[in-house]
Design brief:
Structural class: alpha+beta
Strand content: 15-25%
Helix content: 25-40%
Number of helices: 3
Strand order of the largest sheet: 4-1-5
Number of domains: 2
Oligomer: single chain
Number of strands: 5
Length: about 140
């Protein structure tokens, strides 16, 4: 157990997250107001000037140190949950539901769809698939 210090201004990096943690290898950064348990005397980093000291030495065991491992785990879990969250809209907006087959286009073969398109003066490419032909015919019919 080292000495306890409260960060008064700026931030302070000390140590790295342990192996097995979501942020393993990254520096542990303490912000203003957080309590650092340090093996070194951070008060030596305080310099005189208009901004005042950066660290305040705390005495006694009544002040708990800031649990950066727990905080980082919660943040990492939240970020992971947000990254995989599915609101039902898919990657490109709301999922378009298929139009019901009330026009019976799905039951027709590709040659029958081509004949229907020709009757309606709709030009279909030679390499069009049945599904694409149905989509084109439905789009034009709307």
């Amino acid at each position: 157990m080292g000495m306890k210090f409260r960060v008064l201004r700026g931030n302070h990096a000390e140590g790295t997250y342990p192996k097995g943690h979501a942020w393993a290898g990254r520096s542990i950064v303490y912000s203003i107001g957080e309590i650092v348990d340090s093996k070194s005397n951070l008060a030596r980093l305080n310099s005189p000037g208009p901004l005042g000291p950066k660290f305040q030495r705390l005495y006694g065991d009544a002040t708990p140190i800031t649990d950066k491992l727990l905080q980082a785990s919660q943040i990492a879990k939240q970020q992971e949950d947000e990254a995989v969250y599915d609101d039902g809209n898919g990657p490109h907006g709301p999922i378009q539901s298929e139009q019901p087959d009330s026009d019976n286009l799905n039951s027709l073969t590709l040659p029958e769809l081509r004949k229907l398109a020709k009757e309606e003066d709709i030009l279909l490419p030679a390499n069009i698939s049945k599904e694409e032909a149905v989509k084109v015919l439905r789009k034009v019919a709307v």
